[in-house]
Every structure is written in C-alpha cells, then in structure tokens.
Amino acid sequence: MRETAETPKLFAPAEGIAGIVDRYGGDRDMLIPMMQDIQADFGYLPREMLKELSESLCVPFSRIYSIATFYASFRLEPPGEHRITLCMGTVCFLKGADRISRAIQREFSVGPGGTSPDGKFTFCPVNCLGACALAPVMVVDGEYHGGLTVDLAVNLLRKIADAGKPTEATRNGKKKERGSKKK
Amino acid sequence: MSTVATGLKTANDLEQYRRHLLGERDPRAHRVRVCVGTGCTAKGAKGVLELFNRTAEEAANDGVIVETKCTGCHGFCERGPIVVVDPGNIFYHGVKREDVPEIWRESLTGGRIVERLLYKDETTGQVAKTPDEIPFYKAQHRIVLAYNGVIDPTKIEEYVAVGGYAALAKVLTSMEPKEVIDEITNSGLRGRGGGGFLTGRKWRSARDAQSEPRYVIANGDEGDPGAFMDRSLMEGAPHSVIEGMIIGAYAIDSSQGFVYVRNEYPLAVQHLSTAIAQARELGLLGYDILGSGFDFDIRINRGSGAFVCGESTALMASLEGRVGEPRAKYIHTVESGLHEKPSLLNNVETWANVPQIILKGADWFASLGTEKSKGTKVFSLVGKVKNTGLVEVPMGMTLRQIIYDIGGGIRDDKAFKAVQTGGPSGGCIPARYLDEQVDFDRLTELGSMMGSGGMIVMDEDTCIVNFAKYFVGFLKDESCGKCTPCREGIAQMLHILEGIAKGEGKDGDIERLEQLGTLMEDTALCALGKTAANPVLSTIRYFRAEYEEHIREKRCPAKECPGLFNYEINRDVCTGCGLCAKKCPVEAITGERKKPHAIDQQKCTNCGTCFDACPFSAVVKV
Amino acid sequence: MPTVTIDEKPYRADVGETILEVAQRNGIWIPTLCHHQALEPYAACRICVVEIDRGGWWQVVTSCNYPIRRALTVRVNSERAIRARRGVMELLLARCPESPQLRRLANRMGVEGTPYPHIAAAQENCILCNLCVRVCSERIGASAISMVGRGGDRTVATPFRMSSEDCIGCGACAAVCPVGTIDLIFHEDEVEISPFETRVTLRRCAECGRPVGSELVNEVLASRGGPTLVEMLAGDAYCLRCKRKKLAERLTAAVPGNGSGRAAQERSLPGGTNVQTGLHAGNPRSIRVGEAG
User: How far apart are CA C40 and CA A83, in angstroms?
Assistant: First the structure.
C-alpha cells in the first residue's frame, strides 16, 4: 500500500504518448487520466507531450491547455526535488495551517504552487487531505506529518533540505496544542 | 487463508462460497487487526503491522498461529494507530512499534490485557476494554461504517464472509427492478452528498428516462474541507459502495458505472481498484452477473483537484474529459447527464446504504431517524472537539449529544461557540441551538445544511469573521469562474471581509455582504455559487455583534485578526529567556536577561512570532 | 404548442424554444452578453435572468437557455428580476470599467454605476463571456483559444500564451466580442489578433491595398470543400469597397452601346478562372482553387 497524496502511478512509464493513449484505447473521455499518467511519468506536463497528445487524439491543443490550467493538481513546470503538500482544510486552518503556509513561503522563498529557487521544494497547498484528525497536516514526498506547529514544519523541511531524508524523530511531532496557549 | 474462488455462476454459488469461507474460520483464533486508514498510517500503523506480521511468521514456525490483518478506518483517528485483538475485541490505541512485543506476549498469546494501552475516559477515569465501552463509540449506530475496522478492505472474501453481495444475489434472483426502486423509495433514503433528494425518486426518474444507454455514477469527490467519511468508506469498505452501485444499475437498467474519486485520496483509489478487480474475477461485475443475464461494469476516474467537480454536471463534464464547468440543470441529469444520457449519480455513502436496505428491508431503515430523514448519517466531527473522528448516528440525534456525549466536549474545556455543518455551502450554528435535532430539514431551517456531513466545532478562540473569510477564500479558489455572480461576487465578498478583518470595515459592509449573498443565491449558475454566501449569511445572522465590533470598534474579540488586538508579555510568567526578543523581526521586544521582557507597541507589527516562540506561554493576546 | 405568458401577456411558443427566443420574437427586450444566435447558449454572464413560476414559488432562471417544454409563466420586468440583472451588471462594471459597450448596455438597463471597487487582476476588460472561444471552436473549427485557469484568475488565451498555430486570423473572435476587448491590428503584411499575440499573413485588396483578411482563412475554407472564401468573404481579390466599384463598372459596361464594357465583362465570367488569375497568382498556399485550375 502506498501512502502518497500525489497522483499515484497506476502504470509503469509507458513508451511515450502512444503507449498512454493505447492504455485507454484512444478514448477521448479519458483525456484527464491520460494527462494524469503523463504527470505521473514526468512529474509535470511538458508542452511537447501535450502537443503530441493533442495530435494523437485529435483534440484541440487549446482544450488540453485549458484542462491543464483548470485542475489544480496539474503542473506545467518541472517540480522541485521534494514535494510539500500542505493541507489548508478547515480543521488545519483552525489549527494554524495558514501560519505554517506563510512560514514555509517565507523560509524557502516559494509561492503556492511554485518551486523554491534552489529547486529543493515544490509547495502545494491543497484544500483538504481528509486527515483532519491529524491537523495541521503536511505530506512531504508521500509521507504524512501530523500535529504540526510552525517550528516543527520548518525544522522538518530544513532537515530534509540538508539531508534529503526525513528522520523518524521529526515525524508525528507535536503534543502541545495551540489552543492551550491562548488565554 | 482461503483460496479465492473465481467466476461464481449463480447466487447459490455465492452462498456456497460464503459458507466455505466461514467454515474455514476458527472462532477461537487469535487475531490482531491493525487499522491502516490514512490517519493511523500517518501515525505509523504500517510499522506496527509489519512488526506484527514478522512476529506472527516467526511464531508460526513454533506452531503458534496468530492471524494478522489490516482493516479500514475505525473513525477514531485522533487516537491512532488503533490495534484490536481477538478474541475479546480488545481495543488498544496510540500503539507504537515498541508496544508490539508486549501486546503479543500479554494479549495475543497470554490472554491478558495491556492496561496502559486501553482507552481511559478523561473525565470519569474509567477504562474501556472494547470499543462498545468507549463513549465515542457507545452512542453510535454503525450501518455503513459497520465493516470499517472489522474486515480487510483489500480482500473480497472477507466482505463475502460477513454477508457481502447477498443483497445483490437477492435482487438478481428474486426482485424486479421496479421492486428494488420501491424498496429504496419506501426506506425514505435521501442523498448523503448534499441536497438530500429522495434517492428512490431519483432512481425512478432515471429508470423512466427515455434514452439509452443509462449510466450509474458514484460521487466520491469529497471536497468539503473537514469531511472525510467518504474517504474512510472507500478505503475501509469499498465493496459496499460497489455492491450498492450494481444494485442501482440493475434497478435502472444500466450497464456502465463510474466512480469519481478525489485525487487526494490515493488509498481510496487503490482499494477501490483492487475491489473492482476482485469483483470482476468473482463474476460479480462483468457479463451475466450470477447467471442473471444482467451485465454491468465499473470504471474509476480520479479527480484532479477541483472542488466544483463535486457538483453533478461538473463531475460529468470531467468524466467526459473536459473542464469541470457546471451547466444549467433545467433538464435534470437523470434525463440528460453524462454524454446527454440518463445518469444516476449518488454519493458513495448513499450507495453504501443500499445493500443494507435491500437485506434488512425498507421498514427497518425507515424505523431509524426522524420523520423525514431516515436512517443514519456519518459525520466527521472535527475542530476544537476532544474526540475527533467519524461518527455514525441515527438522524435526529441532537447536536449536543454528538458534540458532548460522543465528541467529549470542547478541548481544554473552552466554551463552545458554534458548529459549522455542511462545509463551504453550509452555515454556522450557535450554542443556543445545541439541543436541536440533526436532520436534513432542521439544519436547513437553521440556515445551514446537512451537506456531506462535515461538523466543524469552534470554540471561543475562533473569530467568526476570520472563519467566514476562510470559507469565502476557499470558494474563491475553487469557483470555476464561468458565471459572473460566483466569480465576481465571491471576490467582492472576500474583499469586504478582508477589510473588516484588517480593521478597515465601514458602516454598510454587513448590508453589502447580505445583498451580494441574495444576488448570488438568485443568479449563480450552480449550487456552489448559489450557496457560496451561506457561511457569511449564517454568521451574520447569529454573530452580527461580532462583525459590528470589528467594524465599529476595530476589535477582534476572539483575538485572531492581526491588528485588532495586541500582544503583551505577562510579567508574572516571563522568565526573561530572551527567545522572543531574539526572534522578533522588528526588534520590538526588550528586557534584561532573566527579567521580564516587554513589547514596544509602537514598533510591534502583530506578526505573532513571539507568541509562537515563547516556551512558557508568557506572551498573551489582549 | 405551449403558451408562454410573459409579464402577463400570452405568446405562442414551440417546445424546445428558449424564453429568450420567444421574448425576442415578440419584441420584448432582455439584455444579453454571452449570447449569440449562431452559437449554443452558454448562460455564463447571467445578465438575461428572468423569473418563472414554479407553482407557488418563483425561480430566477437564465432566459437564454431555459427550454420551454410546457406552458410557462415568466416575469421579465418584476422587481426581483430587474434587481438581479442590475446586480449582475454592477459586478461586471466593476470588472470592466473601461468598456464603452458595457456602459451603454448598463445605461439602457438603468444602471448608473457600480458600488463595487475594481479588484479583478486578470484580463481586466474581458467579461469572460466565452463567445470568442465558442465561435472559434463551434463555428470556425480552429479552437485556437480557450479559457485558461479558473475562478478569478480565468482568462482567455492561446495554449501556453504563445502565438497559436491553430489560429487562422479570421477575426471572428473580435467580431463577436460584446465589449470590444479583442482587436485586429493590421501590420504591413500580417494581421495580429490583439490580446492573443497571434499573427497571420494578411491579404490585401489587389486594387487599393486595404486589408481583406488572412491568407489562412482562404486556405482553410477552401480545404473544407464548402463555399470558398472567394465566394464567401472576399469575393474577388478586392475589398468590399473596390468590389462594389467593380460591380458598378461591370453593370455600366453591360449596358448595350457602351464600348468600354467588354473587357470587364470577360473578366467577370462565372467560374474559377477569373479568381485564379486575380486572386491566387503567386499564392502557393491556396489549395482548392489551385487544384480546380
């Protein structure tokens, strides 16, 4: 079982666009799954690939671009080394996700949906991971980290940036509730 | 483990297979069930399961047989990872890898109980051995969540063994499609995804629609932030949803179904894919199901990150490989939906209710709940409540029972302020309605709605303006942008709310918000736009004074809106460690070492860094 | 044949017609922006909303796409319908304060100004009615542009906001734009579709040199096998004004006894040959006419 919040790779990388189109029998209804597969293979949607897909399916290029920019999970730029998915759902918000978001943006000079200048992180705030009991929750490279505070989140990411791998100690941090501090 | 059967040819084959599976079971077997739902997994359940597996393998060499299995979400995610030991149904929570040897030695092989891992009630101090003794579970009535935490969702045998697909067999062998529709109609089941439309009536319209082919669709695009019952259901009991869909397809004469699942739910996608493949292999999907001559198959489509795709017409546009833009429903989707063909779309929770209704009867289902809202509803009880998790209760339970009896009340014993139900399309309900019954119609009367069943609890520290602003901001990001009122109206609303939250609110802002709300309700194209103002309108309705305080006195009573309150250092608590002064970006904090520090209010920008930094909670909001 | 009652007067209607069609046929004015009779209704701008009787309650619906299936009672000029339309117009004015076309429509609707500030950041003078996108795909078949992004960030653009290979420079998008946001800019030998940064080779009148459209339009129409651009748009290699002048000359020449008419008459014989010499000489991109000749 996987534990990723990203588009799961349901298939092995196909031989180019033809393979992906064949996988769905060339069914134009499956345009979005095909694009998901391209992103799973390449990490983003390269322009040439979309162009090829357009020609192969006889679907206007403009329509494919429209879809690529409408759905939030599609990326048109190559992603960074690590992918941060920060939940901005209601519960996470109530428990301070927006402060964590601001801190990450400040700390790593990265905007929502963007990649940090050093190419280390791609930062994707999403609307709800449905893991509300863990709020505030963040997924880094497929691994869930719950009960975060600003410091825990930033420190975790710094460690990842330095070493490349999150350590066991930084997982499931927190115990201290933000609420208990307030008067 | 039993061998998986393939190609069941008749309903009798299915029954035989079930008996065979049950026959293989040893009721006295020692078994450990580890929850591998998203919540428990995030807290390390995989490691726990792996260790149990390894231990079991080693023990098997010595002739000790212990069955380990993974299950779907128990709903009490707060306390994960959850491990249950049989016989005895002993419920351990917060289990770590280090605890595995002790559970193995004491509980699984020793027959004793590991007291320290049992649930202990905070207030009464009472220890609970089984889930039924825990207040969180005691008041619940689990129908759709019945299999969560009990069976392994990745094994169809387990579902069949507990009576799965028996409803399908019953329908195919002894019921006419019309009878199936009547049964669902008589049960009073209403759509669990939002509007609460009568499911049976919807099925009938789909059946009566003139054109062909007809499609059956399960909406698993659970987009409401704070709601995760559909995720848990798809992860924990995917076959219930599939069985419901096959029955629905039989009732309306459809041969193709679709499940539309959120992309953020990878485990749900995986479990559903596995389940569909297994059902096909067993002959429960495909041609000539159980020899009935009825053909049906299901395809999974993953969403791609668009809340609006939870709206039926947008979802269908997405299934057609297009941008998820809603269209007018002047001709309903049961007549003209996917590819302009009759399309029956129900929420996954609605589908999961269907097999139970068929098996136990419409009267049984109708006996649960209130006059017009039958059965149970799963709520995701989250926010500032002690026990966070999934709660399935009969319709008509009061908000107080759900929030206090099951949820254990408010965290840190703060005061309850409001509960938001129905997600971004719903509204806030204040404390004076805590004793209201929760059902479709009552929630609507209160200016909120049932929606998919999100229940977000707010305490006294939650600013109502900030909360409304959150939802409007969410909807601004999620509006498809097609129609003017939604696209422009939400942006204008957010602009006004941001002004109020910054202390730049003006007289007339509240009225302007109300006007925009009415305009959007009247003129927006789809339900997202029509209800987008609900969080604002309902909070104005119940918390007008708080809005006015922000606007007139430039004060945020909950102390959440930056700039509308100040940070100060409590001299009695401050140890003079200097951490706040070091972290302050504008050097507004001064003080001698080991002596209480102070904040220069002229310099302070209210960024809150000191508040986050202080290890002694000496920085306070005033 | 159902009867549609609009503001208390009965009108005959066909099943499948829209409220707007019935109203327009009977001279009842309902403002529209994203509607065009040559295109499928889209119902995005919401400026055409009216009230209908749902038996006990009145529902606000868009008249442009509400299909008539049985007898229906409609209020176009009720207080609620007018308030709704004006509210939508106010939101649009806040988005596009610059457009004279939009202000004219607002005036006609009795909307003086807007109480809302101008906060839209993306594509300021576009009301996102989608007419240009739809005409390009539904009618022209080029699909060079589409809606890009969503919500408040939505804009109309070419793929990757680069000059489109699919654009034929026909200018239909500019022609249908209700707020005058899309422009055709004529350069020396190219026509540019203004917000989309797409340039296509320009055809000029063989006589006076005025622009008559893009080369690609000719090619595309020809390749479809239907009436060619030659027949549809440009007629000859001439602009409309020169064409009229030529026609006048021809008619004059056709009057018996006028000796100067003969040459002109020969030149305008029906068939493709005249076109070939006049229009396509030196144009390697022409397909159909070239083959025919």
Answer: 42
CB B183 within 8 A of CB B312: no
Sketch the domain layout of chain C as residue ranges: 3-109, 131-234, 256-291
pTM, entire model? 0.87
Q: Which residues of B touch A70 (CB under 8 A)?
A: 306, 323-324, 480
CB B480 within 8 A of CB B308: yes
The CATH T-level fold of domain B464-552 is: de novo design (two linked rop proteins) (1.20.1440)
Residues A95 and A63 in one domain: no
Residue C208: its pLDDT value, please? 80
C57 part of contact set with chain A, CB < 8 Å: no
Question: CB neighbours (10 Å) of residue B405?
Answer: 17
User: Can you tell me the distance from the alpha carbon of B76 to that of B478, in angstroms, rounded to the nearest whole number?
Assistant: 29
Which of A55, A58, A66 is best to mutate for the C interface (most C CBs within 10 A)?
A66
Facing C91 at nearest CB: one of B482, B485, B525: B485
Instruction: Say yes or no to pLDDT of C268 above 80.
Output: no
For residue C150, the chain A residues in CB contact (below 8 A) are 69-70
B566 neighbourhood in chain A, CB within 8 Å:
none
Residue among B321, B322, B411 minimizing CB distance to A177: B411
ipTM of predicted complex: 0.90
A86 and A145 together in one domain:
yes
Domain shared by A106 and A132, yes or no: yes
pLDDT tens by residue, A97-114: 988 999 999 889 998 888
Q: Give the distance between the most distant pair of CA atoms in chain A.
A: 62
Using one digit for the tens of pLDDT, what is the confidence trace for B302-330? 999 899 999 999 999 999 999 999 999 99
Residue segments in chain B with a per-residue pLDDT below the cut of 50: 1-3
Q: What sign does the CA torsion over B363, B365, B367, B369 have?
A: negative
